[in-house]
Amino acid sequence: MFSFDDSEDPIAAAIAPPENESPQERQLRILKEHTAKQVSDGIDEEITRERQQAKRESKPVKILLLGQSESGKSTTLKNFQLMCEPKTFRAERASWRAIIQFNMIRSVCVILDALARDLNPTDLPPSPHSSWSSRDSLHPDADLLALHARLLPLLQIEDVLAQRLAGPDAHNVPDSALTSTHLPMTTRRRPGKEVAVNSTVAWKSAFMRKPTGHESFDTQNVVDWDDPDDPGAALHAHSDDIRRLWGHPMVRQILARQGIRLQEQPGFFLDEIEAVTAPRYVPTDDHILRARLKTLGVSEHRMRLADPNGSITRQFHIFDVGGQRSMRPKWVPYFDDVDAIIFLSPISAFDQVLVEDHRVNRLADSLELWTSIVSNKLLEDTNMILFLNKVDIMQSKLASGIQLVDYCPAYGRRPNDFDSASRFLKKQFSAILKQSSPAPRIFYCPLTNVIDTKSTTYVLAGIKANLMHFNLKESYLIM
Ligand SMILES: Nc1nc2c(ncn2[C@@H]2O[C@H](COP(=O)(O)OP(=O)(O)OP(=O)(O)O)[C@@H](O)[C@H]2O)c(=O)[nH]1
Ligand SMILES: [Mg+2]
């Protein structure tokens, strides 16, 4: 068997204590060795820390955008793109142009439906927004009847656009619009569905053409201005009638009586008729942020973000999800290894119901969804950022006299102003987080209006900087 004699080992011999060492010399030697070991351990620790830091920094930052449908997730993503990749964002203007035109036609169709409902209430399902009764119809005048008849062709354009944009997702196309030349005001028409996309590619090319040879990717070059299906020409031809319809006092009355607050609905562009119906219309950044296109499934967006002086860059992977109830089970596979969740709650929706289930209040649904997210075991250590969103609409609703307590009895006798309401809602959400968190966790809760790029860029820049350096703990509230 192999044996090892210490006395023959040169290293052991070199570090062995000297012969005839005095007790003082021994003490001094032990002290020196101890100090040297401390220094060496410190260096090792520093190396390990640096390695871990480098590993974390090479790992992409993963962010999930969550929240119910129409909460503002895709709009927040657009803000990230506008902030970090403005050229790519603007290169897609041509695609958004068709969405905005579609949004405008939808608003016109909502009005046409409301007029038809007013005249013949049994023909159309009641508006989900009101308890309006058919007994007190206003009976549109001859001028309005003529406008309605002239605008009916827009229903077909809505269908054509929806089919082009939905591409292979044909099941998202609105139910076809039936028109009658004899009885235009009693037209039976089931309300159209929204267009939704689950691909970032298909719908974007629906109305685009590839620039040829020397042409740049400028919007003027990528829009196919000669496309016979392009709704630009038809919209331009109907521009005056749309303006007259929206400006008609009886239309405002009919909408109000049916509880339809069109200005607050997503994709509202009737305050920009002239711009959107212009012959060679190109959307602005603001228009793109206000455009409404429902998301299906989950889409991943990768971008490299830099800190303000450009010295550090990190890869960010941002996941945008569809928020309707049927889409929510699809979120779970993405919960692994998430750095931060940006959860959007559209607090202005306190007086609305879910499109997918008219029995459910949207604020109640948002609180329930928040509860399920923050109590999910997979997300126990995830940083939670909560956007209390659509504060602009919330402000105008409260100012118009809509009472929060009517929809949320727990609000009690508090004043019906924005400060009190937003403070109350913030407390509700943070109490849920606290109850559901076994260990303290980071919580940041700004009041947002994500169609306002200036304020949103400020909020997102803070989040970006903190996630880049992994120091959320230092800047955000720890619950
Ligand atoms: N006025 C106002 N409109 C907003 C705000 N945030 C979003 N919107 C609009 O609300 C609509 C819906 O926003 P999206 O970002 O598409 O909603 P989403 O959460 O992605 O919805 P899904 O894709 O269906 O899950 C869009 O037309 C936005 O422009 C806001 O703070 N204020
Ligand atoms: Mg979306």
Automatic annotation (TrEMBL):
Residues 10-21 have a biased composition (Low complexity). InterPro entries: Gprotein_alpha_su, GproteinA_insert, P-loop_NTPase. Residues 23-36, 46-55 have a biased composition (Basic and acidic residues). SMART domains: G_alpha. Residues 1-55 are annotated as: Disordered. Mg(2+) binds at T295. This is Guanine nucleotide binding protein, alpha subunit.
